Amino acid sequence: MSEKPLFLGIAAASPNVQSVAAALAADLAVPLIQPDGTETGLLLLVTEGALQLRQFGPDAPGPVQVDFVEGKAAHRRKFGGGRGQPLAKAIGLKKGWTPRVLDMTAGLGRDAFVLATLGCEVEMIERSPVVYALLQDGLNRARDDADIGPIISRMKLQHLDGRSYSSGTTSPEVVYLDPMYPHREKSAKVKKEMRLFQLLLGDDQDSAALLERALVLATRRVVVKRPAKAPFLGEQKPSVSITSPNTRYDIYLIGTHHAAT
Question: Are 167 and 217 in contact (CB under 8 A)?
């Protein structure tokens, strides 16, 4: 497990959002603080524009926030390759079949957003209260956008540990996992979001248990996203894999669907 720095709590960027910060701190059961510039660690900052995760201290990267309307999400929505992209192929999207997907490791919601853009109903679960708050904030802000709102309506989020998830009356056809993978490169080469998440969460120690749960829940397939050269999760060999330059999607076909991809 990576050594975690002190998570300081939640702060307001201005008096205008002080009440919002206080309410969020109460919801997440974390401290509400007043930064004085001498802190070292991670902080959720409530601004008038968005909720941000920030690191304080020397050589800290810039803030991380969830934005489905502009930036990377917009570019991927417009130019990501539609149903021909590796993620869509791995999930099994094809003419006449748009599966219900459970994303057990929602993170910043980027892959879930791609799948919702392609028409999937996506249920997301995230166990970290900090990451959950960031993602919920992004969903709330995007919901009012005329173009993005209909996509967001296909995305549902729960604050939950995936190992405790129960599907109720409707089981997901596809379960998707993108567990945290240990990054051993020098920090400058690792994406800003991943650096902060690694600091906040450490390495996943129970992703193999998530895979076991996913294999019970899914009715058609489980898809695990891995770095291209990473070992199989839990040393379980998939039915088939789809590779791209930096990423591999390991696909575990369930039951009667084991013969078809």
Answer: yes
Helix intervals (H) in 66-189:
71-79, 86-91, 110-117, 129-142, 149-152
pTM: 0.87
What is the pLDDT, as a whole number, of residue 257? 56
Q: Identify each DSSP E strand in the chain by its residue range.
A: 7-12, 41-46, 51-56, 100-103, 121-126, 155-159, 174-177, 221-227, 240-243, 247-253
> What pLDDT is recorded for position 195?
74
Can you give the pLDDT at residue 187?
A: 45
What is the rounded CA–CA span in Å between residue 120 and residue 97?
9
- Position of tokens 């906040």? 200
Please, which residues bridge with residue 126 across strands? 159
Residue 52's DSSP bridge partners are: 45
Eight-state DSSP code of residue 49: S
Q: Are 180 and 204 in contact (CB under 8 A)?
A: yes
Position 261 scores a pLDDT of 43
